[in-house]
């Protein structure tokens, strides 16, 4: 048995025009590349069944991320202390470390796919089908009990397989996960747009560590977005804890999508990649010592190059090409110039994530009516259907889906030629711990807005209910919606499933179905054009920060705009929740070496929650707000903005008892270029009058850096 392994990804060679295989959006893969889809499910099934002693087994590769905290591939640390893991969270190498990590997973999966493919040499075999357990639904540790290394943890020892939003009986609640994800989709997509299009510094973009003097326009990050998805997918289950999250199959889809988002940002900021700093104590881990200089050439352990003498470094992985893949948006070979390529990516971000906030909001009714819901299901088991041609392989996952059934899968008996497999994911699905209610609601509705919460839940706000279908589509092409990781059976189809039509209650209200202003880059109806002079508007964001490990566990801060039910269990699906800030903290006795150092140093992390779309809804649908200008928004937020904190188990934590928690309001002016892409001003404004005097609110004594320049 090998004691070390090199990280090489999937072997590929560029075509004469420079093209390389694509990590495809998962719905596209399932609908249009059926051989690859079948091989993906069969290969993942095989990988999950490999002996735990095999370095390329699912268990071993997943264990690199946290539990069971044992050295991988013979890579020891630089000290004589007990092994403390390779964690690089809240660090400038967060994105670069995870790229070879995902490539190693893909490499292991490809090896299993190769074994499967060689068994399907005859057309007769390929025409047969069988039912298999859906490998995306969960990972069973050994089919009977949790391995000894994990059984010492009394909480996780309860589960012989990974769970999402487990109830008191240990059953995953995937439908709740989907509900929660959908409820905050508008803010999540706005956050993705904001970070991809307005952040131009790699350190600020890549990770959530906050430093004194950090500009108020740079509280968000790719890692902050990543944390939110972990929380929504886990909700008391494995994805909500970094110690065990990598065992959930959805982890890999999520992280390939994180990798994709970095690839998009890197493509439009090709000169911004820079890593060069002395590791603070909080940036040290088992293989990086405090005081050691972290550069773009520092080794990303435990990921060896071929030859097993040197490790991959950040400079070598800043592009995806060394691992032989690209994403649908990053096909540079299709463009005559870098300018055309970057322009295409900015337009893709704007379209997929609704980055032009005002245009997205005022999309005409005929556009709304053609959008499809992204909910369909892949069961706990699934049939594998016969197919013939073998197109280019791999998968990349779309953004969130909505409904999630119990699993199963059926699969045709094997095929011959081998695609290049991989997977990347949409913005994930979510579920909540026991006690969380599955009450579907949007951001909109006619709930009264008062400064204090009321016992009676606010009525659903109509805007998000109508907008949700369109936003889900904006995430990517919804040729064939499907909830990939939800049912216990996996279904491999030979023809596309029927689309769901958009419900009439998700269409825009009649007040928004008015004639558009053709010349406007914002696409604003004539009756509202005076609110957006010269095609500009204000983007409003809630900034949050806190001490990462202060509560010794994962916790989150919910942001509300308007009344909300006082029962914490209902907050994840509360109609007036507009977003969350997730903190993936760890307990004081965590084996994670870097986490213990972060605790000692009281590391502060930050995040952002955009609220512009929710404010637009209150202008148009409720007529409760006159404009997005500060003179109107500031007093409105002073009355209607609220925030509350819950712990890993969903119980409430008083805001005043969260060390270092600060919540503030900022805005910047946004213009729109000729392609409809938003251009954010580098100057931001802070409004302490909104939060001054409130528990954990930013007050007038805080010094803030308002310019990003």
TrEMBL record:
Catalytic function, reaction form: 2 L-dopa + O2 = 2 L-dopaquinone + 2 H2O; L-tyrosine + O2 = L-dopaquinone + H2O
Domain annotation Tyrosinase copper-binding: ranges: 89-106, 248-259
Keyword Glycoprotein attributed: no
Biased segments, Low complexity type: 386-428
GO terms, biological process: melanin biosynthetic process
The protein's Enzyme Commission number: 1.14.18.1
Cofactor(s) needed for function: Cu(2+)
Transmembrane segments: none
Enzyme type, top EC level: oxidoreductase
Database matches in InterPro entries: Di-copper_centre_dom_sf, Tyrosinase/Hemocyanin, Tyrosinase_C, Tyrosinase_Cu-bd
Sequence segments annotated as region (Disordered): 374-428, 497-520
Cleaved signal peptide residues: none
Family recorded in the similarity comment: Belongs to the tyrosinase family.
Protein name as it appears in the record: tyrosinase
Organism of this sequence: Sporormia fimetaria CBS 119925
């Amino acid at each position: 048995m090998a004691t070390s392994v090199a990280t090489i990804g999937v072997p590929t060679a560029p075509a004469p025009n420079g093209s390389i295989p694509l990590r495809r959006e998962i719905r596209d893969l399932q609908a249009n590349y059926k051989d690859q889809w079948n091989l993906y499910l069969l290969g993942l099934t095989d990988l999950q069944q490999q002996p735990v002693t095999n370095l390329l087994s699912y268990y071993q590769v997943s264990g690199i991320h946290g539990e069971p905290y044992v050295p991988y591939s013979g890579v020891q640390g630089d000290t004589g202390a007990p092994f403390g893991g390779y964690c690089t969270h809240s660090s400038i190498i967060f994105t670069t470390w995870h790229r070879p990590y995902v490539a190693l997973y893909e490499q292991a999966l490809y090896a299993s796919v190769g074994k499967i493919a060689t068994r399907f040499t005859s057309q007769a075999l390929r025409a047969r089908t069988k039912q298999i357990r859906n490998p995306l639904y969960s990972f069973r540790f050994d089919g009977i009990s949790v391995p000894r290394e994990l059984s010492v943890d009394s909480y996780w020892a309860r589960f012989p397989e990974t769970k999402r939003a487990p109830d008191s009986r240990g059953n995953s609640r995937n439908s709740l996960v989907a509900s929660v994800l959908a409820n905050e989709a508008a803010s999540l997509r706005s956050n993705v747009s904001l970070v991809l299009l307005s952040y131009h510094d790699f350190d600020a973009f890549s990770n959530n560590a906050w430093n004194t003097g950090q500009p108020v326009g740079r509280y968000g990050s790719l890692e902050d977005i990543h944390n939110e998805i972990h929380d929504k997918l886990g909700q008391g289950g494995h994805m909500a804890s970094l110690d065990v999250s990598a065992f959930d199959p959805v982890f890999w889809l999520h992280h390939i999508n994180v990798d994709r988002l970095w690839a998009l940002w890197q493509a439009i900021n090709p000169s911004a990649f820079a890593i060069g700093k002395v590791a603070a104590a909080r940036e040290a881990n088992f293989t990086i010592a405090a005081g050691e200089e972290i550069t773009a050439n520092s080794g990303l352990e435990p990921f060896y190059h071929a030859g097993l003498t040197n490790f991959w470094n950040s400079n070598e992985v800043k592009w995806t090409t060394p691992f032989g893949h690209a994403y649908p948006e990053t096909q540079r070979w299709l463009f005559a110039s870098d300018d055309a390529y970057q322009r295409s990516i900015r337009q893709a971000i704007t379209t997929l994530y609704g980055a032009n906030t005002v245009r997205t909001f005022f999309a005409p009714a005929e556009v709304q009516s053609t959008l499809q819901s992204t909910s369909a299901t892949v069961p706990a088991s699934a049939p594998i259907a016969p197919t013939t041609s073998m197109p280019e392989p791999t998968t990349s996952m779309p953004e969130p889906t909505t409904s999630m059934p119990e699993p199963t899968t059926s699969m045709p008996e094997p095929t011959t030629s081998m695609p290049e497999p991989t997977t990347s994911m949409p913005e994930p699905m979510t579920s909540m711990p026991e006690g969380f209610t599955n009450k579907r609601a949007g951001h909109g509705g006619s709930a009264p807005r008062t400064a204090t919460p009321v016992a009676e839940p606010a009525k659903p706000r109509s805007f998000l209910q109508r907008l949700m279908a369109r936003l889900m589509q904006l995430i990517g092409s919804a040729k064939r919606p499907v909830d990939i990781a939800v049912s216990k059976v996996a279904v491999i189809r030979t023809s596309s499933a029927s689309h769901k039509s958009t419900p009439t209650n998700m269409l825009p209200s009649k007040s928004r179905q008015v004639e558009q202003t053709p010349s406007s880059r914002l696409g604003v109806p004539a009756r509202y054009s005076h609110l957006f002079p010269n095609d500009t508007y204000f983007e409003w964001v809630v900034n949050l920060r806190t001490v990462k490990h202060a509560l010794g566990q994962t916790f989150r801060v919910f942001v509300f705009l308007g009344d909300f039910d006082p029962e914490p269990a209902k907050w994840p699906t509360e109609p007036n929740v507009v977003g969350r800030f997730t903190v993936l903290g760890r307990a004081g006795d965590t084996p994670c070496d870097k986490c213990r150092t972060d605790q000692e140093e009281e590391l502060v992390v930050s995040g952002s929650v955009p609220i512009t779309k929710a404010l637009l809804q209150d202008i148009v649908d409720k007529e409760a707000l006159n404009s997005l200008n500060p003179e109107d928004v500031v007093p409105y937020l002073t009355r209607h903005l609220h925030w509350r904190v819950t712990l890993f188990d969903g119980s409430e934590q008083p805001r005043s008892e969260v060390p270092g928690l600060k919540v503030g309001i900022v805005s910047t002016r946004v213009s729109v270029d000729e392609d409809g892409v938003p251009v954010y001003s580098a100057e931001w404004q802070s409004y302490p009058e909104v939060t001054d005097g409130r528990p954990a609110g930013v007050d007038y004594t805080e010094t803030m850096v308002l310019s990003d320049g």
